[in-house]
TrEMBL record:
Organism (species): Marinobacter halophilus
PANTHER family: OS04G0476000 PROTEIN, OSJNBA0022H21.17 PROTEIN
UniProt key word Signal: yes
Leader peptide range in chain numbering: 1-21
Protein name: Sel1 repeat family protein
InterPro entries xref list: F-box_motif, TPR-like_helical_dom_sf
Keyword Signal: yes
Keyword set, alphabetical order: Signal
Amino acid sequence: MTKYSPVWCVVFWLMIAPVTAQSQSDDGRADELFLEGYMLYQQYAGGRSLPKFKKAAELGHIEAAYYAGNVIRRNHTFMTSESEHYYRQAADGGDVYAMLRLAQKDSVCGTLRNCDYDREAWLERALELSLPRAEAGDTEAMMALSSAYAIKGDSASDLKWVERAAENGHAFAQYWMAVMLSEQERGFYWTEAGRQRDVLKWLKASAVSGYPKAMYKLAVTLRAQGRLEEARYWVEVMGKTDYYDAVLESGVQLMMGPDVGDIFSPTISYQFEKPRPVEGAALLLALHRQTGKDAPLEMIEAYQEHLTPEIMAEVETRSKELLVDTPVIYYLPKFGI
């Protein structure tokens, strides 16, 4: 057996240590760039996120490569050679959703004449990777598998795996089950009442798990059913999240209270007992400061005659305490857009 002296061990370590340190440094920098890009992506700032995703991908970050491909594809509305390059990098690294992008039909290929030559191979690879993980209880794999079956044209298996992920506590899957049942009218029900019961079941499960898009949809659904006390509860809760649409809606409803029906339409009123102008307007002002969006200010202006200078001074003060260091996002899904 070959023996190595302590001296050679030290020399060997000194040789590989810089390489190891550089690798760790690159990994850390790639993660940092990806997270920065991802936050911008979730704020609909795809143009600003792309350079960060590209740099992270150059450092070997697989998911960053997927999102770089996504941004480029969305900018052109179809697959380009550049987006294909990043999708292939991610797919070769094991990202199932990148495989599914490459597996989609040639309608997304634009001017790429040969972009679908291995489409079926990527679909089969995605299925082969996802199925055993899903069967072992991995809910993320279940959701990826559902997307694979959707591309394959197997809508029953698509629904089955979303439902299984939902049953295993996946908050987005629970929300998506509600969308599939209510907006896509998936699944068979003898009565509409039965369908609506399941819609509410999944929305509540997702909302309780903390998913803000479910909170918003649940509030709207309960309002439509006349269950206003329950709906008002979720309007209050969703105002404390980081989801733009939910915070905007909560701020408007709290600020205007019952007046929202007179200003806009009775159908959108949650019939709060009274307006809470300071609380609601402060939330809207904080939302504007965080996002630069005009809609929050427009809502304040729509209620301007009820907002005295004294109220607005209090609004200004309170708004500085809200959404501090909280990036406001849109909860865009990884796949499907």
